[in-house]
Structures are given as C-alpha cells and as structure tokens.
Amino acid sequence: MQTLVIFALVGLLAQLVDGSLGMAYGVTSTTLMLAAGTTPAAASATVHLAEIGTTLASGAAHWRLGNVDWRVVRRIALPGAIGAFAGATFLSGLSTAAAAPLMSVVLLVLGAYVLVRFTLWPLSRARLGTPVRRRLLVPLGLAGGFLDATGGGGWGPVGTPALLAGGRIEPRKVIGSIDTSEFIVALAASAGFFVGLGGAGINPLWAGGLLIGGVVAAPVAAWIVRRVPPRVLGSAVGGLIVLTNTRSLLEAVWPEAAPGALTAVYVALAAAWAAAVAWSVRAHLAERAPEGAPAPGSPADAAGGPGRARAGAAE
C-alpha cells in the first residue's frame, strides 16, 4: 500500500507538470523513478504503461473541448509510434550499466531544453493559422518517439515546443494534438518494451500508482495553469531535471570523483537554476506590467514609478 501511495504521488507531481506545460510527464516521472533506484528500461516501460491510460483520458478531454487538430495527429502519430517502438527495443537490449548513463544524458538534454526554452523565449504567434508542413511532422514524430522511449519521456518536450515555435497552430491545439497522438506513441513503446523485456522489471503496481496519480492531478493541473505562470514553472521543473540527472550521470561515469568537486558542481548548477527561476519571474512580471509602467526593480520603480518622478520634476 505504501508503494502504491508513493508512485501515486510521483504520478500526481508528473501530471501537474505536464498539465501545466503541455510536456514533461515522462521526463519528470522517469527522473523520480531513477532517483529511487529503478533500472532505466523498467522505469521507461512502467511510465509508458501508465501513459496509455493518462494519455487516453487526456486525449478524450481535449477532443471534447475541440483542442485537437486531427490532421496533425494523423501525420505525426504513426512516425511517433515507429520511433517509440524502435527506441524501446533499443533500450531493452542495453545492459543496465550502459543504459543508465545514456538515459541520464537524454533526460539531462531534455531538462536543459525545457529550462532554456521557458526561461528565455516567450511564445510567438506571428504565423498562427498557417498549415503545418508534412515534411516537418514526419521527422519530428520519428525523433520524438525514439527519444520518448529511450529517455523515458520526450514526446512533449520535442513536439510541443517545435509546433509552438512554428506559430502555425493555436497553443491549445498544439497541446491537445500532442497529448492525443501520445496515446499511440505510448502503445507502441509499451509493445516494444514487452518484446524486448518480456515483462521483466515492469511492475503493474507502480504503473497503477502513476496512473491513479495522473488521473487525480488532471483537474488540479488545469487550475495550476491558470494560477502559476508556465514560464516560471518550466524554469523550475527544467532545473530540477537537470540537477537530478547530472547527479545520476556523474555517479555513473565519475564514481571516483572527490566529494568536494561534486559539491562544487551541484552548487554551481543550483545557483544557475535559482538565477533562471528569478529571471523567469522578473520576465513574467514585466510582461504583466501595464504599458509605460516601470519593470520591477528598475530605478523608476525604486523611485516610486513615473508618477513620483514627474512630481519630483514639478517641485
């Protein structure tokens, strides 16, 4: 029972992140499972088994709300399934010693991407409504599906920012289409892991816990996305993923490292993470400020804003 509760909490946290950002359910839950000592292939297989249920529920909800562009789903889901099946069988064939650093590298790169993407670049909507080209969706699906299986997550971090950056689809339809097509990707990845692992290491109890937590968190995530700025949340989650997987990677490839050296690396990463979150908070406040109002922390703001400055000039 205790194990079920723990994994339900992991699924809850992962779905809160995914529901608020449109990505990172797999990356977050796999990172937490690896930190708990689960093997890479079993972690990814368990997460994808749970995602069959969470993505089905999410896709159905998006469909009912009209948040799905079925042309995008049709063109990206099949390449994504092919990539996911290939990635699952590839990861299943690796030894744990080889798979652990590989998955840490993939998760580290994806976490860094989420961190940088949400810290530095706001959403552009200049080309909204322009049709998405097929030659973009096919390779995007293949790459996203492969990384999703080998890294325990990656469909959202690869697909969602790529389609958002293009500015051709409404943001709500980007998230709805990616979530809906992920159901096919999760099915293909699970099939690949069952072929490669034969069910070994896959714990239905863990998958059930992740599923329960994800379903419970779905409405809460909808509330969070209305209250917590995605830019700030993305920076916070991306930094957590980077820090956690840097630790796992260093333990795998540099076991003889001096504790002082490791501490210095972690302190530097934590400082960079805090700076990124602070930057995102400041950028969000600046975006919300009325036109002509000083940015928080600026000299005009410290002096009491434009009104006080004008009053001082009049005196």
UniProtKB/TrEMBL annotation:
It is a multi-pass membrane protein. It is found in: Cell membrane; Membrane. InterPro entries: TM_pro_TauE-like, TSUP/Inactive_protease-like. Pfam families: TauE. The chain crosses the membrane at residues 43-64, 76-94, 100-120, 183-200, 206-225, 232-250, 262-281. Keywords: Cell membrane, Membrane, Transmembrane, Transmembrane helix. Residues 290-315 are annotated as: Disordered. Residues 291-315 have a biased composition (Low complexity). Belongs to the 4-toluene sulfonate uptake permease (TSUP) (TC 2.A.102) family. This is Probable membrane transporter protein. It comes from Streptomonospora arabica.
